[in-house]
Amino acid sequence: MSRDDGDDGNSAYGRSRFKRSKAHFSDRITADGRDGWPVEAGRYRLVVSRACPWASRSLVSRRLLGLEDALSLAVADPIQDDRSWRFTLDEDGRDPVLGIRYLSEAYDRRETDYPGGVSVPAIVDVPSGKLVTNDYQQLTLDLATEWTALHRQGAPDLYPHALRDEIDEVMGDVYEDVNNGVYRAGFATEQEEYETACAGVFRRLELLADRLERQRYLVGDTITEADIRLFTTLVRFDAVYHGHFKCNRWKLTEDRVLWGYVRDLYQTPGFGDTVDFDHIKRHYYQVHTGINPTRVVPLGPDLSGWLTPHHREELGGRPFGDGTPPGPVRAEERVPAAHTPGPAAHTP
After folding, report:
1. Does the annotation mark 107 as catalytic?
2. Taking a C-beta distance cutoff of 8 angstroms, is the pair 122, 74 a contact?
3. What pLDDT is stored for residue 16 in this prediction?
């Protein structure tokens, strides 16, 4: 996620027409190193915000594939300033591995005065401190297909060859109407622009609900990249997109199929254990000052429903295919209990 509307920082959010930028740094980290960046354990650092749906894809993929030892993790503060993502969650406000205060420093080491904003997810080359890629569309596909030598034993196949055409088609529709559609609605500056985007969001959600009423997962009978990409938008829907982005024809909790589907994924190891509802809400409501100038963060919604039975297992399916669930979250990467639907969470 980045600002896509020039150099006005956070003040521009919600005051100018929304346009999703393409990733400026599209180098790939591959098994053969053809772009100059070979897959290598310990060489790279993944920088994310738990607030950002695009970055959250990489968090889920990394967990499911068991890449924690191979690809270290830096988590940025959900509240940006006008230099964008910062490491104020770390001691002395510096990332302990990269030694930088702002992600923009890694961008600058790669290219000074580059066009576009500072976005996450980003992968940084630790030895040089340079950004390698911020290509949020390709990054997780490469984790699934190029990093296989470093996958954990029992890692699922998130992008199986036989289903790639169908996965790509589904992901394309989800991206256009849902992942990106909520932003077009939320940042719309004209009524017609908003209504078109909002209608597109719910039209696609209804089509997805029809599909998911008959099958547990979007493509095939196992979790794939398509499910990861839909999940990261759905898990934010009632918390921020319904109110803050005005996508309010109905709440996710009001749709039996989608609410069951997203709870099924949330309760699957590797999905819900990466989600920080506090970071999500504070980022959207406090950073997008063009939409929410008071920066007041709402108390709701009640999170307790995320842990209720979903009954999706009745549709069959094998979440990890021939693989196994990921192990427990390592202590230093656990989301604080107060930021989750667990018993320590605050509910209004």
Report:
1. no
2. no
3. 55
